[in-house]
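DATA SHEET
Item: assembly model
Revision: 1
Owner: S.N.
Input lines:
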Amino acid sequence: MAYDFSENDELQMLRETVRKFAETEIAPRAFELDEREEFSTEITKAMGALGLFGTIVSPEYGGQGMDYLSYIVCVEELARIDGSHAATIAAHNSLGAGPLYYFGTEEQKKKYLPDLCTGSGLWAFGLTEPEAGSDAQASKTTAVYDSDAKEWIINGSKLWITNSACELTKGITVQAVTGKRGDKNELSCFIVPAGCQGLTAKKMTQKMMWRASNTGELYFDHVRVPESAMLGKQGEGFKIMMETLDNGRLSIAAMGLGLAKGAFDVTLKYAGERVTFGKPISKHQAVGFKLAEMATRIEAAENMLYKACWQKQNGKEFQKLAAMAKLYCSEVAEYCAREGQQTFGGYGLMKEYPIERHYRDAALLRIGEGTSEIQRLVISRYIGC
Ligand code: COS
């Protein structure tokens, strides 16, 4: 099968729709929300109304039934304007609805997915813990079975969980230790609805980046869930989480690509308007070369990411490429934000210029959903190191 990730009319129209939304509904408020570290329920619901929730979920469960590249283009277009809103959508679709859709029973899918496809509810991914980040098997959160009540009792905590502590949060998929297999933890996943007795969700503040996205710290104090709350089989939790991250890497890569394009766009515009030594700075080789380098890296990043999406939607192995795309797109994002800021000079250090926010938001991309070092580890395993 020949590679084909060219943009057809339908995808072009979707891109334009999301771009227009981001430019008219998000851009005018991005500075203020970032400054106040405020999550906008109103914009999030509007993104839902636009069809950005449940993007990849089949219409049977209320979703939009998009292919992967279409979903990735939506994330990219949001990130072109603002990382926080792109993060809300990426985390909800890939990490929130994703595992329920791919690993849920028919009953679980029918129960949870429709609400998560409309914009009325967000779902979160409870993997990371204070002492289990890159080493995701090192979870300390436990789930103990109470055979009398036929319930699991969850104790522990989770950290840096996107979409987990706001009024739209409907629940979290939680990885917990359910036993031992040799010297390793047996890990299982549980569907934990928001508002369960014993669950405390605290909004995390003082973030450097993605300040208008919702990040939560979760505490589980004897949280009881029924047997039917297990996602997948007992002991399959880590694989569910890892496969979810394989998909998630594509959306973080899309955030990197979108941020890089956003940084490039504002820099190109500024460089065409700003005059020094009698001509626009884009006509000075020092700046023209920066823009040429940004455009080249963006082209390479786009090709890598779209090829990974094509592989995924055509049922081919995409995991290695997804890790490469996540790694590379986040590096290109950081490069474009830095070179863009350099081009803006002193103005690039001022908060009223979006390049300043892009510069801060880019930092998350090499740390969140698997650091750049973890991506290199994953890639090195695929290539046989
Ligand atoms: N898909 C399916 N199964 C996978 C998998 C994947 N992508 N990656 C690993 N597994 C399976 C392995 O096949 C292995 O199965 P068996 O026990 O049946 O052999 C099991 O999971 C353990 O794998 P492994 O020994 O490779 O796990 P490690 O502890 O070495 O961890 C890494 C692997 C480092 C890749 C993993 O911990 C990781 O991705 N860490 C980063 C986590 C992260 O991104 N956190 C941020 C979350 S923010 S949302």
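QC remark: The chain has a mean pLDDT of 97.
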